[in-house]
Design brief:
The chain has about 475 residues and is α+β, with helices and mostly antiparallel strands. The protein is built from 10 helices and 23 strands.
């Protein structure tokens, strides 16, 4: 768990667990770019023992020592953030040795990876005497076997598979170049990437392992606030940004609100109301199992003729394969239909992007069709390829959407090797609606916004869709 100490709450320094969301996140911190004197005034971590990125650390180590580049305000407290199995067990409260040094008593396990962060975007109790918050500092290290520390690799500057400052410096330069040339949303949030890299240069250069480098780089890149931007080290993923959205649906409310509700797999559930209205929850777009969506096609095939409407629930759909969305949405149209546009990264072209490209979907001739009114349910958990699915459904004649705006996260990420087993995944396009409007960070708004009342029972979004379908039926509209 993370710690967030503030001695103003009590005479003796007290530490408490951070919010559960932070515990799940582990040590994700979103860094913002700073400029001018305020940037220069922020304190930094000068060194730690164990060092960031160290491997073979003695599991009998009893404390983590943090040294700052200037005197800190020891009365404000601290923010030591992390969570899960990778956060070190604490033996006692952290203590200030002096204004520039803190000791964190810990109990470590052999052959174990540890991660934490000193300060992050939300918790900033580490402050200088002048009140400036500490630049967030990731600390990651790996213990060796029981009985003592294993020999650490000699961090010499060679290219024989040994990781050292020279390799870290080269990987930093490559990452900086890729941000400018291959990252489609490089200017969406961050205006000065040079400042962000400069702020983290010392920690990147001091990384003692590829994992240590990736851990630091993931915090650096979190400035972009982009869920489609991450690093990978030999199969271990290092996300740069996690912002769990507040959803407007849960499985229990759906099961209780939809008659004949049947959950077939993690991606599909269906139901059928007394008046014949069809319901399908599509909770993901997985192309690994071609039979996962058969229940949806069977619903249309068995009950589609004469049904007064279809409710498609995408509120828990985090994306996947856009090709799957084509197959599903293709049951609802008669021919080729434009649904989205995009520009792709093109470093060799003026401006760095291709011309505007159009994306279309077509009728799925091999599957049952439905031509009645379609109510689409969306929310903040609807993201990535599910947003492309949402755009397809906006083009379906007689469709109307209900709920909340989608998350606004569509990157089409591509991998780029940095060396030493480290790969960075960068979004490669700028996604737009059929009208050419970019929606990254904004989302796709529903036709009718529905905000459930706090504590209210039932499913207000589903009820709004049902009311609309009832109105259409009462007015003889199909």
């Amino acid at each position: 768990m993370g710690m967030h100490g503030n001695p103003r709450e009590t005479r003796s320094v007290r530490w408490t667990a951070c919010a559960a969301a932070l515990a799940c996140v582990a040590f994700v911190a979103a860094l913002l770019g700073f400029s001018g004197d305020s940037h220069a005034a922020r304190p930094t971590v000068e060194s730690t023992e164990p060092a960031h990125g160290a491997v073979g650390v003695d599991p009998d180590t009893r404390q983590i020592v943090v040294r700052f580049d200037r005197p800190m305000n020891t009365r404000v407290g601290w923010s030591i953030v992390g969570g899960g199995d990778n956060f070190p067990e604490l033996r006692a409260k952290p203590r200030w040795n002096n204004p520039r040094t803190m000791t964190i008593p810990v109990r470590l396990k052999p052959n174990h990876a540890y991660r934490l962060s000193l300060n992050n975007e939300s918790f900033q109790n580490f402050r200088s005497r002048e009140g400036q918050p500490l630049v967030p500092y990731p600390l990651q290290f790996q213990t060796g076997p029981a009985g003592g520390a294993a020999d650490e690799p000699d961090a010499q500057d060679d290219d024989n598979g040994v990781f050292g400052p020279r390799q870290a410096e080269a990987m930093t330069r490559e990452l900086r170049t890729l941000i400018d040339q291959s990252y489609s949303y490089r200017a969406r949030v961050v205006n000065d990437w040079d400042a962000v890299f400069e702020e983290n240069a010392q920690v990147l250069r001091s990384a003692a392992s590829p994992a240590g480098f990736a851990g630091t780089a993931s915090i650096l890149l979190s400035a972009a606030k982009d869920k489609h931007l991450w690093l990978d080290v030999d199969g271990t993923r290092f996300p740069t940004f996690r912002d769990p959205p507040v959803g407007n649906v849960n499985e229990q409310s759906r099961a209780a609100s939809v008659p004949n509700y049947t959950r077939f797999n993690r991606y599909v559930a269906t139901g059928r109301f007394e008046d014949g209205t069809l319901y399908a929850a599509i909770d993901g777009l997985n192309d690994a199992d071609p039979r996962a969506y058969e229940p949806f096609f069977e619903l249309l095939g068995k009950h589609g003729d004469g049904a007064p409407g279809l409710i498609l629930d995408l509120r828990a759909n985090g994306g996947g394969s856009e090709r799957v969305a084509w197959e599903l949405a293709g049951c609802l149209i008669d021919g080729p239909t434009l649904y989205a546009k995009n520009v792709n990264v093109a470093p060799d072209r003026a401006g760095g992007f291709t011309e505007v490209l159009e994306r279309t979907f077509d009728r799925n001739w091999g599957r049952p069709s439905f031509r009645g009114p379609v109510a689409v349910l969306t929310g903040r958990r609807t993201m990535s390829s599910a947003e492309a699915f949402t755009l397809m459904l906006k083009q379906v004649p007689g469709a109307r959407s209900f709920g909340a705006a989608t998350q606004g996260s569509s990157g089409n990420p591509k991998p780029y090797a940095l060396g030493h087993g480290v790969t960075v995944f960068l979004p490669s396009w700028r996604a737009m609606t059929a009208e050419g409007v970019a929606f990254e960070g904004v989302g796709i708004a529903p036709d009718e916004t529905v905000v459930p009342r706090p504590g209210a029972r039932g499913d207000a979004v589903l009820d709004a869709a049902r009311d609309w379908l009832d109105w259409r039926s009462a007015n003889g509209r199909r």
